[in-house]
Amino acid sequence: MPALPTPRRLILLRHAEAVPPDPGNFSVESDMARPLTHNGERAAMRCGMWLHQNGLTPDAVLCSPAVRTQQTLAGVQSALPPASPDTVLLCPEIYEAALGALSNALRQAPPQARTVLLVGHNPGISEFARWLDSRNEKLDQGFAPASLAVFEMIGSDLVPDPTTWANCDSMSLTLHTFTRP
Question: 4, 13, 166, 181: which is deepest, by most CB within 10 A?
Fold first, then answer.
């Protein structure tokens, strides 16, 4: 009897704590350049350790190009097995993304990926999580910096697996875990 496939999982991660915006400079460039604080760097590493301890190594990563999201991803990756550079996609549409943009970004995930990590910003990450599983009360608390939500795709553990990221919608995923390591 063949082994059941690993369920498809989506991990939403809000970037860790970043330095405050430069007073008086509200430009996109200034906001995109904000780095993590020291506490944010440590929180990103804790997220990576939590993912590792829970056997959640991403096959593909979708990340906003902002400095703080890339630094969060670097902290996460420091605790995980090395990833191939082609598994990380910097997606400009994730920065300041509305719900539809995050959904579209997810649909672009490689079809063979079983675990996808999406690193982004609020309020988009919170809104996307609520859209994916609107009935789960755990998501009512919102996404603090360095919060993780792990969703599992319904039916992705079947043989044959009828699911794809390209067809993912609000009826496809259910919240498995919500945490802030």
Answer: 13
